[in-house]
Amino acid sequence: MRRVLRISLRVATTLVASRAARRLCCLIIATLVLYMAWPGWRSLSTGAPFSGDRWYNPYERSDENVGPWLKASFHSHGRAWLGLSDGEHSDQELFANYRRRNFDIVGISNYQRIRPPFPGEDLYFECYEHGFGLGGQHQTVIGNKSVRWLDAPLFQTLRHKQWIIDELRAGAELVIVNHPNRKNSYTLDDMKSLRGYHGVEIRTRFAKGIDHWDAALSSGNPVWGFCADDCHSVTRGHIGNGWILVHARERSREAVLAAVKRGEFVNVRAMNRLAVNGLESLEVNDGVLTVQLKRVADMIRFVGQGGKILHWVSRAGRAEYEISEDDSYVRIELNTRGTFLYLNPIFRHAGDPFAAHFAPAGSSAGTATVRVMGVMLAMLVLAIGFPSLRRVLRLGRRSRQHGSEPTE
Ligand SMILES: [Zn+2]
Protein backbone atom coordinates (compact mmCIF):
# COMPACT_ATOMS: atom_id res chain seq x y z
CA MET A 1 0.00 0.00 0.00
CA ARG A 2 2.79 2.37 0.93
CA ARG A 3 4.55 1.55 -2.33
CA VAL A 4 1.40 2.35 -4.33
CA LEU A 5 1.06 5.66 -2.51
CA ARG A 6 4.71 6.49 -3.17
CA ILE A 7 4.36 5.71 -6.90
CA SER A 8 1.10 7.68 -7.11
CA LEU A 9 2.74 10.63 -5.41
CA ARG A 10 5.70 10.49 -7.81
CA VAL A 11 3.41 10.30 -10.87
CA ALA A 12 1.29 13.20 -9.58
CA THR A 13 4.39 15.29 -8.87
CA THR A 14 5.75 14.56 -12.35
CA LEU A 15 2.42 15.49 -13.93
CA VAL A 16 2.13 18.73 -11.96
CA ALA A 17 5.76 19.53 -12.62
CA SER A 18 5.50 18.86 -16.33
CA ARG A 19 2.33 20.90 -16.61
CA ALA A 20 3.95 23.75 -14.71
CA ALA A 21 7.05 23.42 -16.87
CA ARG A 22 4.91 23.37 -20.00
CA ARG A 23 3.06 26.49 -18.94
CA LEU A 24 6.27 28.27 -18.06
CA CYS A 25 7.74 27.37 -21.46
CA CYS A 26 4.62 28.65 -23.21
CA LEU A 27 4.71 31.88 -21.23
CA ILE A 28 8.37 32.46 -22.06
CA ILE A 29 7.89 31.70 -25.77
CA ALA A 30 4.77 33.90 -25.98
CA THR A 31 6.62 36.77 -24.27
CA LEU A 32 9.53 36.39 -26.70
CA VAL A 33 7.16 36.37 -29.68
CA LEU A 34 5.58 39.64 -28.49
CA TYR A 35 9.02 41.12 -27.69
CA MET A 36 10.25 40.35 -31.21
CA ALA A 37 7.05 41.55 -32.89
CA TRP A 38 6.69 44.87 -31.05
CA PRO A 39 9.18 46.96 -33.09
CA GLY A 40 6.98 46.11 -36.08
CA TRP A 41 8.12 46.29 -39.65
CA ARG A 42 11.32 48.24 -40.44
CA SER A 43 13.08 48.44 -43.76
CA LEU A 44 16.72 47.87 -42.93
CA SER A 45 19.66 47.19 -45.17
CA THR A 46 23.30 48.15 -45.38
CA GLY A 47 23.54 51.53 -47.04
CA ALA A 48 25.64 52.33 -50.09
CA PRO A 49 28.52 54.84 -49.97
CA PHE A 50 27.70 58.48 -50.67
CA SER A 51 27.56 59.20 -54.38
CA GLY A 52 26.84 62.11 -56.69
CA ASP A 53 28.62 65.01 -58.28
CA ARG A 54 28.00 67.53 -55.53
CA TRP A 55 29.74 67.86 -52.20
CA TYR A 56 27.96 68.75 -48.98
CA ASN A 57 30.23 70.93 -46.85
CA PRO A 58 28.91 71.68 -43.34
CA TYR A 59 31.37 74.58 -43.03
CA GLU A 60 30.53 76.20 -46.33
CA ARG A 61 31.00 79.95 -46.17
CA SER A 62 28.14 82.31 -46.81
CA ASP A 63 27.29 85.86 -45.82
CA GLU A 64 25.13 84.46 -43.04
CA ASN A 65 27.57 82.28 -41.11
CA VAL A 66 29.53 84.99 -39.42
CA GLY A 67 28.11 84.33 -35.94
CA PRO A 68 29.87 83.22 -32.77
CA TRP A 69 31.51 79.90 -32.00
CA LEU A 70 29.74 78.61 -28.89
CA LYS A 71 31.16 76.03 -26.49
CA ALA A 72 28.56 73.36 -25.80
CA SER A 73 28.09 70.17 -23.86
CA PHE A 74 25.03 67.96 -24.12
CA HIS A 75 26.00 64.98 -22.00
CA SER A 76 26.50 65.33 -18.23
CA HIS A 77 24.87 63.89 -15.15
CA GLY A 78 23.76 65.47 -11.88
CA ARG A 79 22.37 63.64 -8.89
CA ALA A 80 19.00 62.11 -9.77
CA TRP A 81 16.58 59.42 -8.74
CA LEU A 82 17.35 59.88 -5.00
CA GLY A 83 21.01 59.20 -5.71
CA LEU A 84 20.34 55.80 -7.29
CA SER A 85 21.86 56.93 -10.60
CA ASP A 86 25.55 57.70 -10.45
CA GLY A 87 25.59 61.52 -10.65
CA GLU A 88 27.44 62.80 -7.61
CA HIS A 89 26.50 66.48 -7.47
CA SER A 90 23.39 68.56 -7.86
CA ASP A 91 22.33 69.92 -11.24
CA GLN A 92 23.02 73.45 -9.93
CA GLU A 93 26.60 72.57 -8.94
CA LEU A 94 27.14 70.90 -12.30
CA PHE A 95 25.75 73.88 -14.19
CA ALA A 96 27.83 76.40 -12.20
CA ASN A 97 30.99 74.36 -12.76
CA TYR A 98 30.47 74.29 -16.53
CA ARG A 99 29.76 78.01 -16.53
CA ARG A 100 33.07 78.68 -14.76
CA ARG A 101 34.78 76.82 -17.61
CA ASN A 102 33.22 79.18 -20.15
CA PHE A 103 30.63 76.80 -21.55
CA ASP A 104 27.92 78.76 -23.37
CA ILE A 105 25.55 75.77 -23.50
CA VAL A 106 25.20 73.23 -20.72
CA GLY A 107 22.88 70.31 -21.34
CA ILE A 108 22.22 68.22 -18.25
CA SER A 109 21.24 64.78 -19.46
CA ASN A 110 20.17 62.77 -16.46
CA TYR A 111 18.85 59.27 -17.10
CA GLN A 112 15.19 59.38 -18.06
CA ARG A 113 14.73 62.82 -16.51
CA ILE A 114 14.61 66.30 -18.05
CA ARG A 115 16.02 69.15 -16.03
CA PRO A 116 13.77 72.25 -16.39
CA PRO A 117 15.57 75.39 -17.61
CA PHE A 118 17.45 77.43 -15.02
CA PRO A 119 15.80 80.86 -14.48
CA GLY A 120 17.04 83.50 -16.88
CA GLU A 121 18.99 80.99 -18.97
CA ASP A 122 18.53 81.89 -22.63
CA LEU A 123 20.56 79.06 -24.16
CA TYR A 124 19.25 76.08 -22.28
CA PHE A 125 18.47 72.79 -24.01
CA GLU A 126 16.21 70.23 -22.42
CA CYS A 127 17.90 66.88 -22.75
CA TYR A 128 18.10 63.48 -21.13
CA GLU A 129 19.89 60.20 -21.57
CA HIS A 130 17.47 57.58 -22.75
CA GLY A 131 17.76 53.84 -22.22
CA PHE A 132 17.38 51.46 -19.32
CA GLY A 133 17.92 48.04 -20.88
CA LEU A 134 20.47 45.36 -20.07
CA GLY A 135 22.25 45.85 -23.41
CA GLY A 136 23.39 49.40 -22.56
CA GLN A 137 21.89 51.06 -25.66
CA HIS A 138 21.69 54.73 -24.66
CA GLN A 139 20.89 57.89 -26.58
CA THR A 140 21.13 61.60 -25.80
CA VAL A 141 17.75 63.10 -26.63
CA ILE A 142 17.78 66.89 -27.06
CA GLY A 143 14.85 69.28 -27.27
CA ASN A 144 12.16 66.93 -26.05
CA LYS A 145 9.57 68.31 -23.64
CA SER A 146 8.87 64.96 -22.02
CA VAL A 147 10.71 61.70 -21.36
CA ARG A 148 9.90 58.63 -23.45
CA TRP A 149 9.59 55.50 -21.37
CA LEU A 150 9.81 52.97 -24.16
CA ASP A 151 12.76 50.62 -24.50
CA ALA A 152 13.59 47.00 -25.28
CA PRO A 153 15.12 46.08 -21.93
CA LEU A 154 16.22 42.45 -22.48
CA PHE A 155 18.19 42.52 -25.71
CA GLN A 156 17.97 44.53 -28.91
CA THR A 157 17.98 43.35 -32.49
CA LEU A 158 18.64 45.82 -35.28
CA ARG A 159 14.87 46.30 -35.61
CA HIS A 160 14.56 47.19 -31.91
CA LYS A 161 17.36 49.73 -32.24
CA GLN A 162 15.78 51.34 -35.31
CA TRP A 163 12.34 51.38 -33.68
CA ILE A 164 13.70 53.20 -30.62
CA ILE A 165 15.54 55.77 -32.75
CA ASP A 166 12.35 56.39 -34.76
CA GLU A 167 10.24 56.79 -31.63
CA LEU A 168 12.74 59.13 -29.93
CA ARG A 169 13.18 61.33 -33.00
CA ALA A 170 9.42 61.81 -33.30
CA GLY A 171 9.42 64.23 -30.35
CA ALA A 172 13.00 65.49 -30.28
CA GLU A 173 15.20 68.00 -32.06
CA LEU A 174 18.30 65.80 -31.96
CA VAL A 175 19.04 62.15 -31.20
CA ILE A 176 22.63 61.06 -30.60
CA VAL A 177 23.74 57.45 -30.21
CA ASN A 178 25.81 57.27 -27.02
CA HIS A 179 29.02 55.32 -26.37
CA PRO A 180 28.31 52.68 -29.07
CA ASN A 181 31.36 50.61 -28.10
CA ARG A 182 30.26 50.22 -24.48
CA LYS A 183 28.98 46.66 -23.96
CA ASN A 184 29.10 46.49 -27.76
CA SER A 185 25.65 48.09 -27.55
CA TYR A 186 25.81 49.13 -31.20
CA THR A 187 27.95 47.01 -33.50
CA LEU A 188 29.78 48.26 -36.57
CA ASP A 189 27.23 46.33 -38.67
CA ASP A 190 24.40 48.14 -36.88
CA MET A 191 25.91 51.47 -37.87
CA LYS A 192 25.89 50.43 -41.53
CA SER A 193 22.10 50.09 -41.47
CA LEU A 194 20.65 52.35 -38.77
CA ARG A 195 19.34 55.72 -39.86
CA GLY A 196 17.22 58.63 -38.72
CA TYR A 197 19.54 59.82 -35.93
CA HIS A 198 21.77 62.89 -36.01
CA GLY A 199 25.06 61.76 -34.57
CA VAL A 200 27.18 59.33 -32.66
CA GLU A 201 29.48 59.86 -29.73
CA ILE A 202 33.06 59.46 -30.86
CA ARG A 203 35.05 60.43 -27.76
CA THR A 204 33.83 60.66 -24.15
CA ARG A 205 34.95 59.07 -20.89
CA PHE A 206 33.14 55.94 -22.07
CA ALA A 207 32.92 56.28 -25.84
CA LYS A 208 35.45 55.28 -28.43
CA GLY A 209 33.17 55.55 -31.41
CA ILE A 210 35.40 56.70 -34.27
CA ASP A 211 35.14 53.30 -36.01
CA HIS A 212 31.36 53.37 -35.58
CA TRP A 213 31.25 56.84 -37.09
CA ASP A 214 33.29 55.72 -40.09
CA ALA A 215 31.09 52.62 -40.48
CA ALA A 216 27.99 54.85 -40.64
CA LEU A 217 29.62 57.32 -43.02
CA SER A 218 31.00 54.57 -45.26
CA SER A 219 27.43 53.30 -45.67
CA GLY A 220 26.11 56.67 -46.76
CA ASN A 221 24.62 57.83 -43.47
CA PRO A 222 25.20 61.58 -42.99
CA VAL A 223 25.71 61.64 -39.22
CA TRP A 224 27.93 63.89 -37.14
CA GLY A 225 30.50 62.95 -34.56
CA PHE A 226 30.05 64.21 -31.01
CA CYS A 227 32.54 64.66 -28.20
CA ALA A 228 31.28 65.12 -24.64
CA ASP A 229 32.28 64.60 -21.03
CA ASP A 230 29.57 62.17 -19.94
CA CYS A 231 30.60 63.47 -16.53
CA HIS A 232 29.15 62.17 -13.29
CA SER A 233 31.13 64.33 -10.87
CA VAL A 234 32.40 67.90 -10.65
CA THR A 235 35.43 67.02 -8.53
CA ARG A 236 37.06 64.05 -10.19
CA GLY A 237 38.34 65.57 -13.42
CA HIS A 238 35.24 64.60 -15.34
CA ILE A 239 34.51 68.10 -16.66
CA GLY A 240 36.12 69.85 -19.60
CA ASN A 241 37.52 66.86 -21.49
CA GLY A 242 35.17 66.79 -24.45
CA TRP A 243 32.84 69.33 -26.02
CA ILE A 244 31.68 70.80 -29.29
CA LEU A 245 32.23 74.30 -30.70
CA VAL A 246 29.10 75.29 -32.59
CA HIS A 247 29.29 77.95 -35.29
CA ALA A 248 25.82 79.42 -34.84
CA ARG A 249 24.66 82.33 -36.94
CA GLU A 250 23.57 84.15 -33.80
CA ARG A 251 23.38 83.46 -30.09
CA SER A 252 19.94 81.85 -30.02
CA ARG A 253 18.50 78.42 -29.37
CA GLU A 254 17.16 78.10 -32.92
CA ALA A 255 20.46 79.12 -34.49
CA VAL A 256 22.39 76.60 -32.37
CA LEU A 257 20.01 73.78 -33.27
CA ALA A 258 20.19 74.66 -36.96
CA ALA A 259 24.00 74.73 -36.87
CA VAL A 260 24.23 71.36 -35.08
CA LYS A 261 21.76 69.81 -37.53
CA ARG A 262 23.75 70.96 -40.54
CA GLY A 263 26.99 69.77 -38.88
CA GLU A 264 28.59 73.17 -38.51
CA PHE A 265 30.53 72.41 -35.36
CA VAL A 266 33.92 71.08 -34.33
CA ASN A 267 34.53 68.31 -31.82
CA VAL A 268 37.17 68.87 -29.18
CA ARG A 269 38.83 66.19 -27.09
CA ALA A 270 41.13 67.95 -24.64
CA MET A 271 43.70 65.68 -23.08
CA ASN A 272 45.21 68.59 -21.17
CA ARG A 273 44.39 72.20 -20.37
CA LEU A 274 46.51 73.72 -23.11
CA ALA A 275 45.02 76.13 -25.64
CA VAL A 276 42.78 74.46 -28.16
CA ASN A 277 43.18 74.89 -31.90
CA GLY A 278 40.21 76.08 -33.96
CA LEU A 279 38.84 76.05 -37.46
CA GLU A 280 39.25 79.13 -39.62
CA SER A 281 37.73 77.70 -42.80
CA LEU A 282 37.10 74.53 -44.74
CA GLU A 283 36.47 74.78 -48.45
CA VAL A 284 36.00 72.56 -51.48
CA ASN A 285 37.10 74.21 -54.71
CA ASP A 286 37.80 72.50 -58.04
CA GLY A 287 38.13 69.12 -56.41
CA VAL A 288 40.50 70.29 -53.70
CA LEU A 289 39.62 70.24 -50.02
CA THR A 290 41.42 72.96 -48.08
CA VAL A 291 41.43 73.41 -44.33
CA GLN A 292 42.74 76.51 -42.59
CA LEU A 293 43.27 76.35 -38.83
CA LYS A 294 43.71 79.09 -36.26
CA ARG A 295 47.06 77.68 -35.12
CA VAL A 296 49.69 75.27 -36.34
CA ALA A 297 48.73 71.66 -35.68
CA ASP A 298 51.17 68.86 -34.93
CA MET A 299 49.36 66.57 -37.35
CA ILE A 300 46.41 66.94 -39.77
CA ARG A 301 44.87 63.77 -41.18
CA PHE A 302 42.33 63.36 -43.97
CA VAL A 303 40.17 60.26 -43.47
CA GLY A 304 37.85 58.66 -46.01
CA GLN A 305 35.79 55.60 -46.95
CA GLY A 306 36.25 52.73 -44.50
CA GLY A 307 38.18 54.97 -42.09
CA LYS A 308 41.20 54.92 -44.39
CA ILE A 309 43.78 57.68 -43.89
CA LEU A 310 43.96 59.37 -47.29
CA HIS A 311 46.58 61.99 -46.60
CA TRP A 312 48.41 63.58 -43.70
CA VAL A 313 50.45 66.69 -43.05
CA SER A 314 52.59 67.48 -40.01
CA ARG A 315 53.37 70.83 -38.40
CA ALA A 316 51.00 72.93 -40.48
CA GLY A 317 48.13 75.37 -40.00
CA ARG A 318 46.81 74.79 -43.49
CA ALA A 319 46.48 71.63 -45.54
CA GLU A 320 45.05 70.54 -48.87
CA TYR A 321 43.81 67.27 -50.23
CA GLU A 322 42.98 66.57 -53.86
CA ILE A 323 39.72 64.63 -53.85
CA SER A 324 39.66 61.48 -55.98
CA GLU A 325 36.82 59.84 -57.89
CA ASP A 326 36.76 57.05 -55.31
CA ASP A 327 36.23 59.33 -52.32
CA SER A 328 32.68 59.23 -50.99
CA TYR A 329 33.38 61.34 -47.92
CA VAL A 330 36.38 63.03 -46.37
CA ARG A 331 36.71 64.13 -42.77
CA ILE A 332 39.62 65.82 -41.05
CA GLU A 333 41.08 65.15 -37.63
CA LEU A 334 44.05 66.89 -36.09
CA ASN A 335 45.98 67.11 -32.90
CA THR A 336 47.78 70.01 -31.33
CA ARG A 337 49.82 69.40 -28.19
CA GLY A 338 47.70 66.42 -27.18
CA THR A 339 44.32 68.00 -27.88
CA PHE A 340 42.30 66.47 -30.70
CA LEU A 341 39.87 68.15 -33.05
CA TYR A 342 37.45 66.16 -35.18
CA LEU A 343 35.74 68.01 -38.02
CA ASN A 344 32.51 66.79 -39.54
CA PRO A 345 32.79 65.26 -43.01
CA ILE A 346 32.20 66.62 -46.44
CA PHE A 347 30.33 64.01 -48.48
CA ARG A 348 28.98 63.41 -51.96
CA HIS A 349 25.30 63.78 -52.82
CA ALA A 350 23.09 64.05 -55.86
CA GLY A 351 20.32 66.31 -54.57
CA ASP A 352 18.92 66.39 -51.03
CA PRO A 353 21.85 65.16 -48.88
CA PHE A 354 19.68 64.06 -45.93
CA ALA A 355 16.51 62.74 -47.60
CA ALA A 356 17.35 59.03 -47.55
CA HIS A 357 18.79 59.08 -44.02
CA PHE A 358 15.67 60.66 -42.54
CA ALA A 359 13.12 58.82 -44.68
CA PRO A 360 10.78 56.73 -42.50
CA ALA A 361 12.29 53.29 -41.83
CA GLY A 362 8.92 51.79 -40.97
CA SER A 363 5.24 52.26 -41.75
CA SER A 364 2.33 52.30 -39.32
CA ALA A 365 0.40 49.76 -41.42
CA GLY A 366 3.36 47.38 -41.58
CA THR A 367 4.01 47.75 -37.87
CA ALA A 368 0.35 47.14 -37.00
CA THR A 369 0.33 43.99 -39.17
CA VAL A 370 3.46 42.56 -37.55
CA ARG A 371 2.10 43.32 -34.09
CA VAL A 372 -1.30 41.72 -34.76
CA MET A 373 0.44 38.62 -36.14
CA GLY A 374 2.65 38.57 -33.06
CA VAL A 375 -0.33 38.76 -30.71
CA MET A 376 -2.10 35.94 -32.58
CA LEU A 377 0.99 33.73 -32.53
CA ALA A 378 1.53 34.45 -28.82
CA MET A 379 -2.09 33.46 -28.06
CA LEU A 380 -1.68 30.22 -30.00
CA VAL A 381 1.43 29.39 -28.00
CA LEU A 382 -0.34 30.20 -24.74
CA ALA A 383 -3.31 28.03 -25.74
CA ILE A 384 -0.97 25.01 -25.80
CA GLY A 385 -0.13 25.46 -22.14
CA PHE A 386 -3.40 26.86 -20.83
CA PRO A 387 -6.53 24.76 -21.60
CA SER A 388 -8.77 27.48 -20.17
CA LEU A 389 -7.55 29.85 -22.91
CA ARG A 390 -8.25 27.13 -25.50
CA ARG A 391 -11.82 26.89 -24.20
CA VAL A 392 -12.25 30.68 -24.40
CA LEU A 393 -10.90 30.71 -27.97
CA ARG A 394 -13.20 27.80 -28.97
CA LEU A 395 -16.16 29.52 -27.36
CA GLY A 396 -15.41 32.66 -29.30
CA ARG A 397 -15.22 30.67 -32.54
CA ARG A 398 -18.52 28.88 -31.82
CA SER A 399 -20.34 32.11 -30.99
CA ARG A 400 -19.02 33.67 -34.20
CA GLN A 401 -20.23 30.65 -36.19
CA HIS A 402 -23.59 30.81 -34.41
CA GLY A 403 -23.89 34.53 -35.08
CA SER A 404 -23.20 34.05 -38.78
CA GLU A 405 -25.95 31.44 -39.28
CA PRO A 406 -28.74 32.71 -41.56
CA THR A 407 -32.01 33.36 -39.78
CA GLU A 408 -35.19 32.62 -41.60
ZN1 LIG B 1 25.74 59.39 -19.69
Features:
16 strands; 2 domains; 8 helices; disordered C terminus; 11-stranded mixed beta sheet; 408 residues; 30% helix; 5-stranded mixed beta sheet; alpha+beta; binds zinc ion; TIM Barrel
Could you describe the 3D structure shown?
The chain has 408 residues and is of the alpha+beta class. The chain has 2 domains: 54 residues, no CATH class; 296 residues, Metal-dependent hydrolases (TIM Barrel, Alpha-Beta Barrel). It is 30% helix and 24% strand. It has 8 helices and 16 strands. The protein is elongated and about 95 Å long. Bound molecules: zinc ion. The site of zinc ion has 4 residues, from loops.
Topology:
Blueprint lengths: L1 H36 L16 E3 L12 E5 L17 H10 L4 E2 L20 E4 L8 E4 L15 H13 L3 E4 L10 H6 L5 E5 L6 H9 L5 E4 L14 E6 L5 H10 L2 E6 L8 E7 L2 E17 L3 E15 L6 E8 L2 E5 L2 E4 L14 H22 L1 H18 L4
Helix pairs in contact: 1-7, 7-8
Bound molecules: zinc ion.
Which value, in Å, is the CA radius of gyration? 27 Å
CATH topology (level 3) name of the largest domain = TIM Barrel
Shape type = elongated
Q: Beta-strand percentage?
A: 15-25%
Which second-level CATH architecture of the largest domain applies?
A: Alpha-Beta Barrel
Assembly annotation: single chain
Output the helix-strand order. HEEHEEEHEHEHEEHEEEEEEEHH
Per CATH, the superfamily of the largest domain is Metal-dependent hydrolases
CATH class of the largest domain: Alpha Beta
Q: Ligands bound here? A: zinc ion
Low-confidence stretches: 404-408
Number of helices: 8
Distance between the termini: 64 Å
User: Which structural category do the helix and sheet elements fall into?
Assistant: alpha+beta
Average pLDDT works out at 89
Report the sheet with the most strands, covering strand number, pairing sense and barrel closure. 11 strands, mixed
State the domain count: 2
Helix amount = 25-40%
Number of strands: 16
